[in-house]
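About this split. The held-out portion is used to measure sequence recovery: a designer receives only the structure tokens and must propose an amino acid at every position. Recovery is the fraction of positions where the proposal matches the reference. Here is one held-out target exactly as it appears in the evaluation file.
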């Protein structure tokens, strides 16, 4: 099987020749530097460890980057503004998100020449809303949460606007050749959510459904990425219609077993390699045991793609990452 066949087979709920392998998203500067020094570049590392997936990224600033604005608009002004980036334009495919998420859509699609599946990351409504109030490189999470309470109706309108923009951007990526749309929207924190399940159902779900339904019109799979513990809305995530969920973060309190029970045996789990409690804390022998534990839980319980729970952090030794993927390659074949 080619990597593309293997991954699409798995996301469709079918058993491939082996468990697909991924690293997830981009590379933090420190890790990338060490990889480049040893392997020449990230692609060489991925070839060495049989990484199956490449991810391209759409931009996340519909109304322009914060440094391009003389002052910070409030919610009222954002509702009156028109996006400065046309999501239906071909130019959006060549735009870069940032230096760590360093593949544009066009860059990602080049990997079709290597028979690799191309995931294109689009940004969900809550995550995009945080970037409206980004300051000094930090997302405006607090401002977004305050507006969800203090300006509920206006924030709901903003979520719908952002959903329409994201849906159109996803369509552009799909028409260009995206194999899977990766919808990134962080709703969780340690052991609970950033807002109540009721608020998620009332404000997030209807807007996010616009994005997912638009993508599914093209018969393209959707993978949802959400950090933290989103156990309280697993039933809603299933109802959204996504095909795969990442990362099912154990270090935040999530359970692989419970996720399988609620999300369904046909739903694909991508993850298993926790960047918080495993990669950054364990030595090579410990990480090998951890990967064996994860494969023991996920390999035969339903569709599974092995990947980091997030980008590899700069405090992670390269030899630990290598040991994790060496072990994954040993365990992956069916």
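Reference sequence for scoring:
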């Amino acid at each position: 099987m080619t990597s593309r066949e293997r991954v699409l087979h798995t996301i469709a709920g079918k058993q491939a020749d082996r468990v697909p392998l991924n690293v997830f998203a981009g590379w933090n500067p420190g890790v990338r530097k060490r990889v480049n020094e040893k392997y020449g570049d990230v692609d060489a590392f991925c070839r060495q460890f049989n990484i199956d997936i490449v991810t391209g990224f759409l931009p996340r600033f519909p109304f322009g980057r914060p440094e391009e604005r003389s002052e910070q608009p409030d919610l009222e002004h954002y509702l009156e503004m028109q996006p400065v980036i046309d999501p239906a334009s071909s130019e959006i495919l060549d735009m870069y998100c940032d230096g760590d998420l360093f593949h544009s859509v066009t860059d990602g699609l080049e990997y079709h020449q290597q028979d690799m599946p191309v995931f294109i990351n689009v940004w969900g409504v809550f995550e995009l809303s945080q970037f409206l109030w980004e300051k000094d490189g930090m997302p405006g999470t607090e401002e977004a949460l305050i507006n969800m309470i203090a300006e509920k109706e206006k924030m709901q309108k903003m979520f719908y606007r952002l959903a329409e923009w994201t849906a159109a951007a996803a369509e552009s990526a799909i028409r260009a050749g995206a194999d899977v749309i990766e919808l990134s929207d962080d709703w969780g924190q340690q052991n609970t959510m950033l807002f109540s399940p009721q608020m998620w159902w009332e404000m997030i779900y209807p807007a996010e459904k616009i994005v997912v339904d638009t993508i599914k019109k093209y018969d393209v799979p959707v993978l949802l990425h959400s950090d933290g513990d989103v156990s309280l809305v697993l039933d809603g995530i299933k109802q959204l219609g996504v095909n795969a969920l990442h990362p099912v973060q154990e270090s935040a309190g999530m359970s692989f077993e419970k996720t399988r029970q609620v999300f369904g045996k046909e739903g694909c789990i991508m993850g298993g390699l926790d960047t918080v409690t495993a990669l950054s804390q364990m030595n090579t022998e410990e990480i090998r045991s951890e990967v064996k534990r994860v494969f023991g839980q996920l390999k035969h319980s339903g569709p599974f793609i092995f990947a980091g729970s997030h980008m590899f952090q700069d405090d992670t030794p390269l030899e630990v990452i290598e040991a994790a993927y060496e072990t994954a390659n040993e365990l992956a074949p069916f």
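Annotator remark: The first helix runs from residue 3 to 11.
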